[in-house]
Specification:
Arc Repressor Mutant, subunit A, 8-stranded mixed β-sheet, about 50% helix, 14 helices, Rossmann fold, alpha/beta, two-stranded antiparallel ribbon, 12 strands, about 425 residues
Length: about 425
């Protein structure tokens, strides 16, 4: 009768038979042990031991009966075991063969045809907002800081979990919500909506020139939390998604899932895909390649590259964020406008975008040491505000200043430095 059973049923029946068989023998041995123990106990304890022995013996009897019925249904147990082993061997062999075929088809030198290496240029060409998706440790904050150092306009960050040294190159007033201050974030988002309406009026009266110099890049960390805590967040993202681009008010929202609900766009997936560039990091990028694009080779390519490989919409991207000087330079004349620089004298620097206190310290050092290269370590030694700052954050400020036309970067990676130049 074993031949009439599905392999999974056969395996289950054999497991049940083995369990019932050994359980019945175990119950018998336990009963003998209890009776032996009861013989040496006082009279008043023997009743309890005897009751336990009878209960254990009854459990063993039932298990023995179950084993008997299963044996009758399986027929020859040895033959049933062989059939089970053959079915298991076939399954394992087929899986291994399929895995070998998949792995064997991947060329270590293979690269996707639509590979991009400059996500900032891609985002600027699309003229869309950014929805950044990734799990813990996938590098969401690093990528966001990278964008903020490359994209022009005033950067404002809504981050309820920001540490004191996070976003250190931004003015204190532009990092809103520290220490879980969701009320401050909600209030600021309300003001953003008012600003957007003001820009609509200004542009309607004076054209694009009337809103020049008012470009902003608004970053909202862990947006699902803001949806729960801030009343203005849902209206904020919807309003900016549909109208902000025209008025140079671009947003970057971060989440750990790529559903519309996580971005406060319940039932409005079209807005998410039409108004945002979706950047998927880590496992989210690999899952997208496998389930949506049906491309196992791309999935393996992403996995092999670690954090430096991810998906930007349907395009795979490879970017080494340790080399700030050689990647993702902003394109000239793009919507994310860079500030214009003009010099009034030897020691005077003027910019259409106000420098924060950290940038001013670096500029002052450069003008006092013309031609000398400033490294992160040296800046930590000579400047108290930078003493406890992360060297990587300092190098981001160096690159940000160079992008604005203030000085130039020298070398790359963890050796990147900055020096003043007109």
């Amino acid at each position: 009768m074993a031949e009439n059973l599905h392999p999974s049923q056969l395996h289950q029946h054999l497991q049940m038979y083995a369990y019932a068989k050994w359980s019945s023998w175990g119950s018998l041995l336990l009963t003998v042990g209890l009776l032996s123990l009861g013989a040496s106990l006082p009279r008043q304890s023997k009743t309890w031991v005897l009751a336990a022995s009878v209960g254990t013996l009854e459990v063993g009897r039932r298990h023995r009966q179950t084993a008997k019925l299963l044996r009758e249904s399986l027929g020859d147990i040895d033959r049933a075991s062989r059939l089970n082993f053959q079915a298991l061997a076939r399954t394992q062999t087929q899986t291994s063969a399929q895995l070998a075929l998949t792995v064997g088809s991947i060329d270590v030198n293979w690269k996707p045809d639509n590979l991009i290496t400059d996500p900032v240029e891609y985002i600027q060409k699309k003229q869309k907002h950014v929805a950044l998706v990734g799990g813990t440790g996938d590098g969401k904050s690093t990528f966001t800081q990278y964008l903020s150092s490359k994209i022009g306009g005033r950067v404002v960050v809504y981050d309820s979990d920001a540490k004191p040294d996070d976003w250190s190159w931004l003015a204190q007033k532009d990092v809103i919500g520290r220490k879980g201050n969701f009320k401050a974030i909600d209030t600021a988002m309300g003001k953003d909506l008012e600003t957007l309406e003001d820009l609509v009026q200004l542009r309607g009266e004076g054209g694009d020139n009337a809103i020049a110099g008012r470009e902003r890049f608004l970053i909202a960390e862990e947006f699902p939390i803001l949806v729960d805590e801030c009343d203005n967040s849902t209206h904020w993202i919807k309003r900016h998604a549909k109208r902000g681009r025209r008025y140079k008010q671009f947003i970057c929202a971060l989440a750990q899932n790529d559903t519309a609900e996580n971005f406060g766009l319940q039932g409005d997936k079209d807005t998410l895909y039409s108004c945002f560039v979706l950047v998927r990091l880590g496992q989210f990028g690999r899952d997208y390649a496998r389930t949506k694009l049906k491309d196992p080779q791309l999935e393996q390519w992403l996995k092999a590259g670690g954090k430096r490989r991810f998906m930007v919409d349907d395009c795979p991207c490879e970017l080494d964020l340790s080399n700030w000087g050689a990647t993702a330079m902003p394109a000239a004349g793009c919507a994310y406008a860079q500030p214009e620089i003009s010099g009034g004298g030897k020691d005077e620097v003027q910019s259409s975008q106000e420098l924060n206190e950290y940038e001013q310290i670096i500029i002052a050092w450069g003008q006092e040491h013309p031609g000398e290269i400033l490294k992160a370590r040296l800046l930590q030694q000579v400047s108290q505000p930078f003493k406890k700052d992360d060297p990587e954050n300092i190098r981001i400020i160096f690159q940000s200043l160079a992008d604005k036309g203030l000085g130039e970067v020298v070398d790359s990676g963890d050796r990147l430095g900055w020096r003043w130049s007109k």
